[in-house]
Amino acid sequence: MEEKKFKILVVEDDADMMEQMDMYLTSRGYDVIKAYTQKEAEEIIDRESFDGAVLDLMLENPDSGFILSHKIKKSFPERPVIIITSVTKETGIYFDKENDNNNWIKADVFLQKELRFEQVDAELKKRLVK
Amino acid sequence: MDEKIFKLNILVVDDEENMCMGVKRCLANYMVEDKDFADKIVFDVSSVTNGTEAIEFISKNKPDIVLLDYKLPDMNGLEILEKFSGSNFIAIIITAFASIDVAIAATKKGAFDFLAKPFAPDELREVLRKAAKTAFISKKARALEEEKKSIRFEFISILAHELKSPLAAIEGYLRLVDERIKGDDLSAYDSMISRSIERIVSMRKLIMDILDLTRLESGRGKRVIENISLKDITDSVVDGLKPSAEKKNVSISIDVDDISINADKTEMEMLLSNLLSNAIKYNKENGSVNLKIKRDADYINIECSDTGIGMKEDDVKKLFNEFVRIKNEYTRNIEGSGLGLSIVKKIVLLYNGEIKVESEYLKGTKFIIKIKPQLAVEAK
């Protein structure tokens, strides 16, 4: 039986990063839906179905990733959301699930900007239900 | 003038309570003004009556000026000076025994001035006026130094970020190539290689721009002011930009008078090439760029207009700041250092000129520049 192809929403404003994420995830058997802005992503969330999301934290707003994550988790709490950020490196602010007592950050995983694409694949695989 | 009240904290250390009271009364309504600065200086006076308390007070409150009695019950004034050598307060030694030896010892330990007991209110005010001026200026200098440090830090942080992003992009592509992500057909990697080259080219441009900007800012680079033809410079700059214009099919029309002015050739090249390359980069397919250079009695007027993507009003406001790049869906794939217009502005100011921008979102942008030719200066 053929394995199910998971559809991943990637939201990223850096053209190269998007291109690379797309190539990598495609090579690993995912279908990629691309959005370059928070606005584009919001429309896709309302309109299209997807299995998980990889979000850049800073888009047109510094907290775009949080807003999108919240929006996704509100309607589809089971869909895994990965937020990619360089905020910790540059500001020293650290996000993680354990320290988030109010649980207002809805994402499943935070990955630092200098990530390897394998990490994204591994985190998605862990959470996507076959 | 923009004047402010500037308060200096003074500590009087004297075992005679009357002396402390006297100084407080004498300075209560005293205000120092000076032709060298707009701010007015007033004093907030505290007092203690022995050395131990003085040491505690100075450590805790860091006064700007300390009036220090030479002879204290538990130690002498110089011991206190010694303890705080290298500190930033100004010390004035009060002494009834105005011996040369004490004066020399105190000066060696960093005392700023002396007051011989008994002294008249006017003498006190005069000594404090001098001390206040020095304290004020060194305080301002320290604040400026701090500000400079933090600006430099911010600049370097942004710069590091700007250099890191192309490296990350190139590294990402190389890793994917390394993994043969597209299989064994080499042509499948063309776009990754050309994107990597583009990022390297723009990274080099960023480094060149930084060098240009630091050269302009430091004023240390060699400026060669000579008689040059703006027409010739324009022609060579336009020649250099032709490939990028052709890529987008942007036409460049030039209306440049045959003007010779006294200027630095490199600066004029930087000015025109930054203006024109922006007009091409932020243009639409099949758009056009128009450059006009005309002379009037006082100024050289440069006008560079394009039929490009334009800018929103909010974006125009931050345009000349360093590393500012307007981010939107139209600029996503355009490379740039974010320094070009900072460079343009610096050059315009060097030529006692001004720069204005008129822009309409999605319609186009026009830069209007006036510069004054330089006086003929011998090349250094």
Helix content of chain B: 40-55%
Distance between the termini of chain A: 13 Å
Number of helices of chain B: 10
Number of domains of chain A: 1
**What structural class results from the helix and strand content of chain A?**
alpha/beta
Query: What is the C-level CATH assignment of chain A?
Result: Alpha Beta
Instruction: Name the biggest interface.
Output: A-B, 18 and 19 residues
Terminal Cα separation of chain B, in Å?
38 Å
Largest sheet of chain B: 6 strands, mixed
Identify the CATH class of the largest domain in chain B.
Alpha Beta
Shape of chain A: globular
Q: Give the count of structural domains of chain B.
A: 2
Number of strands of chain A: 5
What is the helix tally of chain A?
A: 5
CATH topology value of chain A: Rossmann fold
Characterise this structure.
The complex is a heterodimer of chains A (130) and B (380). Chain A is of the alpha/beta class. Chain A has a single domain (7-124), classed as Response regulator (Rossmann fold, 3-Layer(aba) Sandwich). Chain A has helices at residues 15-27, 38-47, 64-75, 87-91, 117-127, and strands spanning 7-11, 31-35, 52-56, 81-85, 109-112. In chain A, helix 2 runs parallel beside helix 3 (64-75). Chain B has 380 residues and is of the alpha/beta class. Chain B folds into two domains: 5-146, Response regulator (Rossmann fold), CATH 3.40.50; 226-371, Histidine kinase-like ATPase, C-terminal domain (Heat Shock Protein 90). Helix content of chain B is 46%, strand content 23%. Chain B has helices at 17-27, 51-61, 77-83, 100-108, 121-178, 190-218, 230-247, 265-281, 313-317, 340-350; strands at residues 5-13, 31-34, 37-48, 65-69, 90-95, 111-116, 225-229, 251-256, 260-264, 288-295, 300-306, 354-360, 364-371. In chain B, the strands form three sheets. In chain B, strands 2-3-1-4-5-6 form a six-stranded mixed β-sheet, sandwiched between helices. In chain B, strands 8-10-11-13-12 form a five-stranded mixed β-sheet, with helices on one face. In chain B, helix 5 (121-178) runs antiparallel to helix 6 (190-218) and helix 6 packs parallel to helix 10 (340-350). The model of chain B has no long low-confidence stretch (mean pLDDT 89). Classes of the chains: A alpha/beta (130), B alpha/beta (380). The A-B interface holds A 13-17, 19-20, 23-24, 27, 36-37, 60, 90, 113-114, 116-117 and B 157, 161, 165, 168-169, 172-173, 175-176, 181-182, 191-192, 195, 199, 327, 329, 332-333.
